[in-house]
Structure formats: C-alpha cells, structure tokens
C-alpha cells in the first residue's frame, strides 16, 4: 500500500518556511516577533534556517501569541524531518547481516 505522502510533489513545508510565511502575512519583523515571544532572535533565526529544531516550549509560545496549534507546528516539523531523512538515505536496502 502506498503512503499518501508519496504522491506529494516535492518536500513538505519546513517549519522555517511556515514561520516565514506567517511573519510575512502578519507583516511582522523577526525582531518584533522574538520580543513578543521573549526568546533570543538568533534562536528563532536558526530554527527558520533549519539549523535548530523547534522546541515544544517555543511552539507553545507561538501558539499563545498567534493562536496556531502547538501540535500543528511540531507535526509540520516532524513531517519535514521524516521526508528529509527518507530522501537522504536513498532506496531501501536490506539491512540483514551477510552470511558467508
């Protein structure tokens, strides 16, 4: 049975792409948003660049600030991480030990 995400064209949206779209649509700056959240600007910048994962604590702060579900944010990140891992490993291989 084929996974429904296999039919997708291209990678799922990363958490950084999603947060960038939200900032743009809300006409907010990164600096202003980090002040609202009470977190260091470089932390959010690294998350948006894919250099650090979004933590549950920060996802909760975003939920309280923007009203976007913490679960949705963490699920987006998880889905993108799964896609990245699968696309980097290449075709499936038999990992059973060699005999002989």
TrEMBL record:
<protein>
    <recommendedName>
        <fullName>HTH cro/C1-type domain-containing protein</fullName>
    </recommendedName>
</protein>
<feature type="compositionally biased region" description="Basic and acidic residues">
    <location>
        <begin position="91"/>
        <end position="100"/>
    </location>
</feature>
<dbReference type="GO" id="GO:0003677">
    <property type="term" value="F:DNA binding"/>
</dbReference>
<feature type="region of interest" description="Disordered">
    <location>
        <begin position="81"/>
        <end position="100"/>
    </location>
</feature>
<dbReference type="InterPro" id="IPR010982">
    <property type="entry name" value="Lambda_DNA-bd_dom_sf"/>
</dbReference>
